[in-house]
């Protein structure tokens, strides 16, 4: 996906109403970041959250309205959900209660059109486990991996994180390197950073921190200098 030089993977969460999409996001981060309720149609517009997933790192997760919403308003919500497809690097399709039908098939074919890698997750395993026949149907339709999950109990999180990691395309991270195309492993990188009146007190500004981090991520060595130290520091010692 082309989203400029954004460094975080964008993960879209899709599925019918009430399958637990918002709960899934909360479980991933172990915090109540998305609104959950037993009322179908709680999430009405795509909601983007900047989150930190343990084991993955920073990510943007996009909670969406259910793809089975009905009525005039429902159709508008569904079309907003579809627009999200253009912005994601990978997707999670959430099911529950062994319901896999036209809505899911349509989503899967959209994933294909947009070349979006995806995972299928059968949520609410605590209420109704995935049946072998559903699993078989899904496998035939999508060829995709299917994971079992519950946001309320069981030990599903570790496997989910690993599967998500495998699903996020490597290119997301490759795009993100600021200096990756001009340095080599073990290079020394000299960063000249003005610390003037406009510099914030006691800390670096974000672009400086990002470059320092990027140098480390490229297995290089940072040398950080103020501009007025350049001449003195680089002159050979007598
Ligand atoms: N038992 C059980 N309940 C769950 C699970 N996941 C979610 N729920 C419940 O299912 C209901 C719907 O959860 P939400 O996370 O709001 O579902 P959603 O898909 O975001 O729903 P919409 O925003 O309406 O599309 C809530 O009452 C949740 O507490 C689960 O794994 N097991
Ligand atoms: Mg929701």
Task: Name the features.
about 240 residues, alpha/beta, Rossmann fold, 2 domains, 6-stranded mixed sheet, two-stranded parallel ribbon, 8 strands, elongated, disordered N terminus, binds guanosine-5'-triphosphate, binds magnesium ion
What does this 3D model show about the protein?
By secondary structure, the chain is α/β, with parallel strands linked by helices. It folds into two domains: 164 residues, P-loop containing nucleotide triphosphate hydrolases (Rossmann fold, 3-Layer(aba) Sandwich); 57 residues, Rossmann fold (3-Layer(aba) Sandwich), CATH 3.40.50. The termini are far apart. The N terminus is likely disordered. Bound molecules: guanosine-5'-triphosphate and magnesium ion. Guanosine-5'-triphosphate (GTP) binds next to helix 1.
Layout of helices and strands:
Elements: E1 10-15, H1 21-29, E2 47-53, E3 57-63, H2 71-84, E4 90-96, H3 102-113, E5 118-123, H4 132-142, E6 146-148, H5 157-167, H6 170-176, E7 188-192, H7 206-217, E8 221-225, H8 230-234
Parallel strand pairs: 1-3, 1-4, 4-5, 5-6, 7-8
Antiparallel strand pairs: 2-3
The structure holds guanosine-5'-triphosphate and magnesium ion.
């Amino acid at each position: 996906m082309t989203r400029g030089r954004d460094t975080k993977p964008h993960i879209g969460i899709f599925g019918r109403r009430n399958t637990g999409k918002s709960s899934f996001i909360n479980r991933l981060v172990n915090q109540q970041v998305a609104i959950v309720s037993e009322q179908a149609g709680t999430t009405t517009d795509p909601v983007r959250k900047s989150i930190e997933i343990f084991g993955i790192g920073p990510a943007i997760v996009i909670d969406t309205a259910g793809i089975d919403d009905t009525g005039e308003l429902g159709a508008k919500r569904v079309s907003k959900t579809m627009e999200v497809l253009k912005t994601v690097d990978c997707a999670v399709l959430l099911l529950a209660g062994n319901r896999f039908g036209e809505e899911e098939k349509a989503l899967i074919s959209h994933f294909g059109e947009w070349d979006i890698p995806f995972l299928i997750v059968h949520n609410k395993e605590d209420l109704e486990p995935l049946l072998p026949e559903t699993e078989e149907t899904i496998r035939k339709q999508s060829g995709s991996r299917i994971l079992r999950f519950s946001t309320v109990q069981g030990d599903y999180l570790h496997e989910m994180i690993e599967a998500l990691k495998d699903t996020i395309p490597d290119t997301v991270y490759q795009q993100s390197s600021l200096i990756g195309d001009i340095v080599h492993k073990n290079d020394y990188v000299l960063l000249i950073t003005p610390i003037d009146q406009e510099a914030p007190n006691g800390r670096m500004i974000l672009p400086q921190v990002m470059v320092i981090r990027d140098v480390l991520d490229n297995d290089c060595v940072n040398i950080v200098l103020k501009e007025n130290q350049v001449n003195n520091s680089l002159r050979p010692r007598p």
